[in-house]
Write a structure and sequence with these properties.
Shape: elongated
Number of helices: 15
Number of strands: 8
Helix content: 40-55%
Largest sheet: 8 strands, mixed
CATH architecture of the largest domain: Orthogonal Bundle
Structural class: alpha+beta
Radius of gyration: 24 Å
Number of domains: 2
Length: about 350
């Protein structure tokens, strides 16, 4: 399995910026960014992040609002918060260098077994597995493993199997080869390209026609649906934003004012008046949906022009111009359907 897999990887691997060298910091940033996000989509975020924060020290010392703005669009903001906490640990314990120690890496905030394995094997050549969803799928099919890969016990057994197979000379290439095979060839949802697979002759699922049935994975619980009404409140050229609570979903980020339930235009006007504002005009912005891991927001939006204020704050809202919003404040992608109106209220994006 080792030789055909490595030969295939070296001929077919994608050119990715974090593969240009074996910088452990860059590998760490890329691995966190690539969780729940397509590799191609990550590239511009990676370049922007590394340009702004090229070292562990820069990450450790970055003001949090700037850090969240750099992460804007990737979602799962707790990941970058945990990265900063880990960076501060690294500065305190390891003089700003990620430790070349698998067990020590696992003790850093936000670095789990997979990420520690990726950093240790790719950056430092330590023979430990790095098992992500792609690797679970490849191994499940090659061995025709019929148990639920969502079970921690099954994942641990697959990690143990890979630990026995991983070559001590090329652990990073081996782990990346398995990941790349899952990303490009042994893909999910009945689309596997078995004719292009270097392991097709060894694959038990391919031999027995069970590729489309594997891996076995228990279904996730259905997401909770929340109805929300989103308000683009405009005072001349300024728009209203507010900061979310420090804990919970999208903690500490800025958002467009919103409330639970779908409100009618008349109900929105009453709500705006209760905020101490004087509405002059209201326009429906239609519907939008955003999916989080455990909840769906089904949103309706309204654009409300109000009588101009002398101050920049009203209650818990900040009134600011669109350029400052774009440059300073991290607005979650959940509001993307409505943020075009921050550029002047015409909906241009």
């Amino acid at each position: 399995m080792e030789k055909p897999l490595l030969d295939w990887y070296r001929k077919n691997k994608r050119l990715l910026p974090w593969r240009e060298n074996k910088n452990p910091y860059e590998i760490w940033v890329s691995e966190i960014m690539c969780q729940q996000t397509r590799v191609e989509a990550v590239k511009p975020y990676f370049a922007k992040f590394l340009s702004a924060l090229p070292t562990v020290k820069d990450l450790a010392q970055c003001p949090q609002e700037r850090l969240l703005k750099l992460w804007e669009g990737l979602g799962y903001y707790n990941r970058v918060r945990n990265m900063q906490k880990a960076a501060q640990q690294i500065m305190e314990l390891y003089q700003g260098e990620l430790p070349a120690d698998y067990e020590a890496l696992k003790k850093l905030k936000g670095i789990g077994i997979y990420t520690a394995g990726a950093i240790a094997s790719i950056a430092y050549g330590i023979a430990v597995p790095a098992v992500d969803g792609n690797v679970l799928r490849v191994i499940s099919r090659v061995t025709e493993q019929q148990e639920d890969i969502a079970k921690p016990s099954v994942r641990r057994r697959i990690e143990q199997e890979i630990q026995k197979m991983i070559p001590k000379e090329y652990p990073g290439d081996y782990n990346q080869a398995l990941m790349e095979l899952g990303a490009l060839v042994c893909v999910p949802n009945g689309q596997a390209k078995c004719g292009q697979c270097p392991l097709a002759g060894l694959c038990q699922a391919n031999a027995h026609g069970t590729v489309d049935q594997l891996p076995v994975k228990s279904r996730a619980k259905p997401r909770r649906v929340e109805e929300r009404t989103v308000l683009v409140i405009q005072d001349g050229e300024r728009v209203a934003i507010r900061k979310r609570a420090p804990k919970g979903l999208l903690a500490g980020l800025y958002e467009l004012p919103n409330t639970k339930q779908h409100l009618s235009s008349q109900e929105v006007l009453e709500l705006v008046k209760n905020m101490g504002l004087v509405p002059l005009h209201i326009q429906s912005l239609g519907e939008a949906k955003h999916i989080f891991s455990h909840v769906e927001w089904h949103m309706v939006g309204y654009h409300i022009r109000i009588q101009q204020l002398e101050k920049t704050r009203q209650g818990n809202m900040i009134f600011t111009d669109s350029e400052e919003v774009q440059n300073k404040y991290a607005i979650p992608s959940a509001f993307d359907a409505f943020t075009g109106y921050l550029k002047g209220g015409d909906g241009a994006k």
